[in-house]
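Subgroup meeting minutes
Present: P.N., E.W., G.H.
Scribe: E.W.

1. P.N. recapped why we're keeping a running log of single-chain structure predictions: easier to compare across weeks, and new members can see raw inputs and outputs side by side.
2. G.H. added today's entry (207 aa).
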Amino acid sequence: MASNNEMNPVIPGADVDWDVESVTFDEEPDHGLRDPVVREAWAARLRTWLPERASDVLDLGCGTGSLSLLASGWGHHVTGVDLSPGMVDLARAKLAGRDAVFLVGDAAAPPVGEQLFDVLLCRHVLWTLPDPGRVLRHWCGLLRPGGRLVLVEGVWGTVSPVGISADRLTALLEPLAADVRVERLSDDSRLWGREVEDERYAVVAGL
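Output recorded in log:
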């Protein structure tokens, strides 16, 4: 997340100007993945979450495209969506010349028309959206048969925690997905560039 202060984390929200934040967004270890240890940790996890074959990946709330860059490097075609034009501009620059497209739009209703995808990837965004159950149903409709959701979420902070718990998210996915797997991420400090104490996890759900 955007702050090293676990007591008062800075996290995505309606009161944040993400065009302003985009200028320094990649300075956080798990955002820019500039540290080779952090980048390799995310690459190792992401590679197990994505199909081995080249696939169409929809990266919602893509930010500056750090995860998109990893996916593209393995031959996946990436469509990234972010509400912030500043983030999208940086993602386009980061993946210039690669098989990737970036669009400005709402992650809850991405502007992808009738296009369907093999994977929907979303990190630290779902919890901020109104009615996550409805959003998940819409997202499932963007996937081809046999597609999968890869959702990285958590509950951040120890004084006034915010987020969505793994238990709640899996309950929302139960009627939508045939296979739901939770992977705990809190205990891997390499992912965050530091030790963390709050709940961080990934859910991989196959349709």
